Amino acid sequence: MLFLPGHRPTWVEKAIRAGADAICLDLEDAVPAGEKEAARAVVAESVGRAKRLKPNIGVLVRVNGLPTGMTGFDLEAVMVPGVDGIFAPKIEDAADALRFDTLVEWFERRNGVSDVGLAIPMETAKAFANVEAIAASTPRIGIILGSTAEHADVAREIGFEWTPQGLETLAHRARVLLACRVAGVHAMTGLWERIHDLDGLRAFCDQGRQIGFRGQIAIHPSHVDVINQAFGPSPEDIAFYRGLVEAYQAAADAGSGAAVYRGRHIDKAHVDKATEWLARAEQVTEFDAAPAAEGEGQHA
């Protein structure tokens, strides 16, 4: 999910060229206070343009948080056809999530849109402490982000000293991941702020995937390809898991409930994991192969 300043409409094309699966048009931190009102109309137009350029791209909008008094004005403007989700900042407990849920439902009905989800970042100590309740608060929540950026709100709130290895935030991220698994919510990680350190980014992505995350946010187009490679299925992994299923099936046909595959003991639990992994890999492959709308090629 690539974040874009909401008041920069030409960045939509750049994001699509970069290969982002989803974009988040930002009305919060990325937009100066004096430009927020004008940015709402720009974001509403950008939603439609993004969908015309790449119909299957996910389009979210980060609105301003509830304490600002701007949330309703933002939602009134940007809840337009094509918006898939609202990125809801500064959520600290289940009550906050339900307040956002109520606002989104109201503007869905008012503006004639539907099925708009919520993406919620963990940005405060209180949010991390309440993540289980937040994740279970409303089925509208589709994504929770285990935020651990170097200089963002969460670093100030919790007081950790960030390192590229991320051990100081491992417990926080793991708690988010487990809460998401229990609630059936997609867990994402982030954020890598060092724009030119792509090796560091790849190591951070690999660690997130190894923990169990299945996606990451980005703030620069150059990071998208690295993230896609880290979290996407590789041909080698696809071949491995297909071979595992075939090896187990051959053993089962011969009357055995276990087998040795590439030097590893495998049984039904391994096959269940491989089958689930391959199904997800197929979904990702189909998503990536979906054609862009006519005219996108001129921007490539």
TrEMBL record:
GO molecular function annotations of the record: lyase activity
Pfam families named among the record's database cross-references: HpcH_HpaI
Organism domain of life: Bacteria
Annotated HpcH/HpaI aldolase/citrate lyase domain residues: 1-221
Keyword Lyase: yes
This protein's UniProt keywords: Lyase, Magnesium, Metal-binding
Co-factor(s): Mg(2+)
Name under which the protein is recorded: CoA ester lyase
Species the sequence originates in: Dactylosporangium maewongense
